[in-house]
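pasting for the record
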Amino acid sequence: MRTDEAITLVVAARTGAELFGVDAPARRYRELVAALHPDRLGAADDRVRAAATDAFVQVTSWWRAGRGGPARHRTARPRRLPARPARVRR
């Protein structure tokens, strides 16, 4: 997917569900992120970079909202180990 196509899709969408669809939402998300990510824009002019960055932020916001929010993207919390009884020396 080209950057201009991705920008057009994001601007036209009203919701994340409309943008990602129901058949393969993860695939659509990856395609959009690949086309819009600021590090992949190379020598694009400033207007395209700004529009792509805005679209990228919108895509990631809708994706996180549809996936239960940013908490699902955090690293796992360390597990608490059960308390051990004190060792008795003989």
